[in-house]
Every structure is written in structure tokens, then in C-alpha cells.
Write a structure and sequence with these properties.
The chain is mostly helical. The chain contains 7 helices and 3 strands. The protein has a 3-stranded parallel sheet with strand order 1-2-3. α1 packs across α5, α3 packs across α5 and α5 packs parallel to α7.
Length: 163
């Protein structure tokens, strides 16, 4: 018997498992998205955002994540002190366009599956379960991440990007 016990004869009607990517199946610690938010703010406006702040809106689409970061009280206070106004739509766009190429490069560096995930997914597939995935990453990021993760053994049956 192993630490992972999956019934050999499941008594469930569940046919599929749908998982997020960063921090769930790959990229233990979710470093690809969070560290890149910090870098994008720094490159776009020489503006500091901490990793802790960058983690708070996790799960949103990346443009919405940037906008939500700009609304965090700590970030908003620093932004208004420096720029004299709340973060605008155009400023979110600028950070997002700075973010995207950085994010695409980063996901390929953090595409290793989290230890223990692949055996669980293999066991579930062995019982007929389908494996799907969704992400707050937009399609261009997913188009880089999916083959990089496949090189490490993670191949969901289907994936959906935020857009």
C-alpha cells in the first residue's frame, strides 16, 4: 500500500478532474506568475510590488490581477503618493503588455510537475478519469506552458485559458 490510496473500484459518478496549473500541478509555490508581476511593475513604472502583494489576487485573469493589485490598499497608497492618481486602465494595459513576454518566458522555466502529482493523475486515469485544466493564464502563455509541461510528463486531456 502507498501513501496514495485510490479505490480500485470507485463508487463515484465523477468522470473528470479539472485542475489549475501554477501551484496545483506545476510550479510548486506559484513563482512564475507572482515573481513576474513584481518584475512587470518594476520594468513598466519602476514601481515596487512585493511577492506577498502579488499573491493576493491569485486566480484572476492576468489583466484583472494587475488591476486588482493596483486596488490593494498598500499598492494604491504608494501608487497615488507617487503618481497622484489611482492606477488607470491605460496603466494596467501598459503593465500587462510588459508582463506578457516575461510571463511566457517564465512559465517554461517553472513547468516541472509538483512532486507526487503525476502518479496521482496516472492512478485516476487508470480508473477512467479524464484530466482537464483551466488557468488564469491567457492563451499565449498556455501555448508556451502546455508543451513545456508535456516535456516533463504532464499532459491533460483538455485545457482552457482565461481568455
Amino acid at each position: 500500500m502507498t501513501d496514495l490510496q485510490i479505490a480500485a473500484d470507485p463508487t463515484t459518478d465523477v468522470e473528470a478532474l479539472i485542475l489549475d496549473w501554477a501551484g496545483t500541478v506545476v510550479d510548486f509555490g506559484s513563482f512564475a506568475p507572482t515573481s513576474i508581476f513584481v518584475e512587470a511593475f518594476a520594468r513598466a513604472y519602476d514601481f515596487p510590488v512585493t511577492l506577498d502583494e502579488a499573491r493576493q489576487p491569485m486566480g484572476l485573469g492576468k489583466w484583472d490581477h494587475i488591476a486588482a493589485l493596483g486596488r490593494l490598499p498598500s499598492v494604491d497608497a504608494r501608487w497615488q503618493a507617487r503618481f497622484g492618481h489611482p492606477m488607470s486602465h491605460a496603466e494596467v494595459d501598459h503593465i500587462y503588455h510588459t508582463f506578457m513576454p516575461l510571463q511566457i518566458a517564465a512559465v517554461t522555466r517553472f513547468a516541472d510537475p509538483i512532486p507526487g502529482v503525476l502518479p496521482v493523475l496516472d492512478a485516476l486515469r487508470g480508473q477512467g478519469m479524464k484530466i482537464g485544466s483551466c488557468s488564469g493564464y491567457p492563451r499565449p502563455v498556455m501555448e508556451a506552458l502546455v508543451p513545456a509541461a508535456a516535456d516533463h510528463g504532464y499532459r491533460p486531456d483538455h485545457w482552457v485559458a482565461t481568455d
